[in-house]
Specification:
By secondary structure, the chain is an alpha+beta fold. The chain is 22% helix and 43% strand. Strand 1 and strand 2 form a beta hairpin.
Length: 92
């Protein structure tokens, strides 16, 4: 995998999610269902010893009709965030 690949989490022998290292957090994109529609979110998991997990909607007030569309948008946004961080977006 490319630079910044951290881990592949597996469940029942299947690839579940890929996390990226962006400094103090590991991130990944996923879809969340709310009332039959879907949001694309980035999940941020703080590195040890912290155990905080937060989710952030990729595009405010944007909903998707299918889980696949939301999942693709979320994963693309997580990759874009990783690329931005690697390019120095968080440094002053």
């Amino acid at each position: 995998m490319g630079h910044g690949f951290i881990s592949a989490i597996t469940s029942k022998g299947r690839l579940y999610v890929t996390e990226f290292d962006i400094g103090e957090f590991f991130i990944h994109g996923e879809a969340r269902e709310v009332d039959g529609e879907f949001q694309a979110v980035i999940v941020m998991r703080a590195k040890a010893p912290l155990t905080t997990v937060t989710t952030h909607q990729v595009e405010k007030d944007r909903w998707f009709k299918t889980v696949d569309a939301a999942d693709t948008a979320a994963k693309d946004a997580a990759k874009a965030l990783k690329t931005a961080v690697d390019s120095g977006a968080l440094t002053s």
